[in-house]
Amino acid sequence: MTKVVIIGGGWAGCAAALSAKKAGADVLLIEKTDMLIGLGNVGGIMRNNGRYTATEENTLLGAGELFDITDKVARHKNIEFPGHNHATLYDVCKVEPTVRRLLLEKGIEILLRNRAVDVVQEGNTIKGIVLANDDIIYGDVFIETTGSTGPMGNCLKYGNGCSMCILRCPSFGPRISISKRAGVEDILGQRGDESYGAFSGSCKLNKDSLSEEIKETLNTKGVCILPVPKEDVKLEKLDMKVCQQYSLKEFAENIILLDTGHAKLMTPFYPLEKLRKIKGLENARYEDPYSGGLGNSIRYLSIAPRSNSMKVNGINNLLCAGEKSGLFVGHTEAICTGTLAGHNSVRLSLGMPQLELPRNLAIGDIIAYANEQSKTKEGLKKRYTFAGSEYFNRMKSLGLYTTDTESIKRKIQRMDLLNIYNEKLI
Amino acid sequence: MPEKRLECVDVGSEFCPCYLADTNDCITCSHLQGKDFCDCNWRGVCVYQEYAMNGYKSKNSREEFISKIEDKKRISDNCTLLKLKVTKTLARQLREPGAYVFLRCKNSNHYFNVPMSIMDTDEVNGYIYIVYQILGSKTKMLDKAENEILIRGPYWNGLLGIKYLKAIKNGHCLIVAKGVAQAPAVLVIKKLLRNNNKVDFIVDKGNINRLFIRERISNLNSDLLNIIEENISSNTGNEIIKGKLENEDIDLVFSGGSDVLHANLLSIIDDLNLSPFMVATNNNEFCCGEGICGSCSTYLKDGRSVKTCKTQLSVREVVEGRIIRD
What we know:
The structure holds two protein chains of two kinds.
Chain A: E1 3-7, H1 11-22, E2 26-30, E3 45-46, H2 51-60, H3 65-72, E4 74-81, E5 84-90, H4 95-105, E6 109-111, E7 116-122, E8 125-131, E9 136-138, E10 141-144, H5 152-158, H6 169-172, H7 178-181, E11 198-199, E12 203-205, H8 212-221, E13 223-227, H9 249-253, E14 254-259, E15 263-265, H10 272-275, E16 286-288, E17 298-299, E18 318-320, H11 331-350, H12 362-373, H13 389-397, H14 405-414
Parallel strand pairs in A: 1-2, 1-10, 2-6, 10-18
Antiparallel strand pairs in A: 3-5, 4-5, 7-8, 8-9, 11-17, 12-15, 12-16, 13-14, 14-15
Chain B: E1 7-8, H1 19-22, H2 47-53, E2 64-76, E3 79-85, H3 88-93, E4 100-105, E5 114-117, E6 120-122, E7 127-133, H4 137-142, E8 148-155, E9 159-160, H5 162-167, E10 172-178, H6 182-194, E11 198-204, H7 214-217, E12 225-229, H8 235-247, E13 252-256, H9 259-271, E14 277-281, E15 297-299, E16 305-307, E17 311-312, H10 315-325
Parallel strand pairs in B: 10-11, 10-13, 11-12, 13-14
Antiparallel strand pairs in B: 1-17, 2-3, 2-8, 3-7, 4-5, 4-8, 6-7, 9-14, 15-16
């Protein structure tokens, strides 16, 4: 039986594990921390704008399990905030254990607190993954979903230092680029000023530290918008963040809070003393990153060159997904690319043709478009998400954006791809 | 293939980052090697963060100070025991296996700095114990010291494979030591016993002609410690080692002696197709101890030169490096 080894247990890794398992592989998932879903433990925004379409597409292609979970543990559904429609906000405190149980039920082996540090290679084929404790995990096909964030030295050199985010590098050790260890050079994302990387786009406040009124608004409506004092409005901060879909003027002039269990603050960082000048936030404190008053994690420093079937160029048996596979933003993007990589890992091991999703599906198009753009200088300064910014405009102009599930189903049926991820190949 | 990532024994200590960071030659941190992105052999702290927090400069390096010689005892023709007064802090910093200091007779100049393994420490009263064998000009000059001596330390890379020593618990270990290398074996044995390991200690007096560490280990846990005195170059000695390895489930082997001893033990282990953790004395010639002068360099398979006064390598790499160089 094919043994698929996945490095990195974030959303992309979990999605890849599920689809590889469904296609018939023996699946082992390696995660350096003590929790799955990575940044998903502090994110929570689903189904906003074009993500709705992508969610429905991935579900109809046969991989709806993770979206079922995020829908089920949603705190708010169908909410609106500046520039964003029909968003679902999942409860970050409930989602990880549910995902973990699902993976274990499906028979996926999970190695937590094990950090991949190197590869054992024969020519252009990876034989095994070396762990920090010197153990070697052998496999037939490997999927890298280690992301592109951190570690500490990078967050310091390209940001404001380690801000103690959910990745917890000081405790669990740094992310290592597996593709780079295998000899493939990383692609680097840039900011508008051509410096490398970008700040993560949001931080989270402890909800209990906010005024009763704000808490009440968040709990009932899911969104709370507070004006920033004029002297503190900083439009230039919009350029430094990852999430270009939230790089809107409204996000600089207002404090936008979303209820994901914590109060998600839609800015990379915000000095605490300034934050506390705002009515209702007099006692505010950060939940993630702990030093959200100072900085945030730096991302996009480690992207692997890949094909549109998610295979890493130059290595015979390595695929990638999530942020490792492009300048993508978001859980939905990670789950969609992860699912495809997991499915294709089994095809690769069997010598079958790789599945490339057609470009008249939003998922197929974003994968191909991000790939094309990563080869251009300007493209490296952009981020690709169904949720907004350039790519959502593209979705709309190409007619890819819809919330009509039936029409998506008809399209996928026409392509003969309905439930393709549920096909057992081995 | 990217280069093998190296491991510096000083990472996490008050002496890290050191001068090597200032010159972009850090052993561990890729940023402090002039590279653009993180790719280190993580030891639990970020060296670059430490460097930045220290104002983008290295931390204070070890200083030399005068120590009182409390006791100086000739233990054989060419071998001397020193009991030196130090701060309790230094005694504590030197209690780990592999610890060493540089010593120098007060009226000699710095060319005469000579690295010496710590045999034992007394952290309660602030003493360290060192045994040296008179071999060349440095030890001859050192031998002239009477009431006071110059010390620089602490240094830690006197052994290779330290991480295995630190990690092993409730295991079974084979310690082989010869001649003056009995001295560094004391801290090794103490560490292993503290972690409830069974220790078979095969000791060869070598040309020192004395089991000078007897009094240091005789009061240790006799249920766990088994001392066998034998000439390990003899057939009998060889057979005992082989027998232990073959018939008992040995988790860790410590080789205290020359690189020839290390190589012999490795070849016995390979013949028996075993894979215990290997720990051995680091026999390279240290001169500055700071990874700068290069006297301790050895070569990796890829031809890279590595400063072994600070870099932790595997015993095998060092033994192989010797062969490549010779």
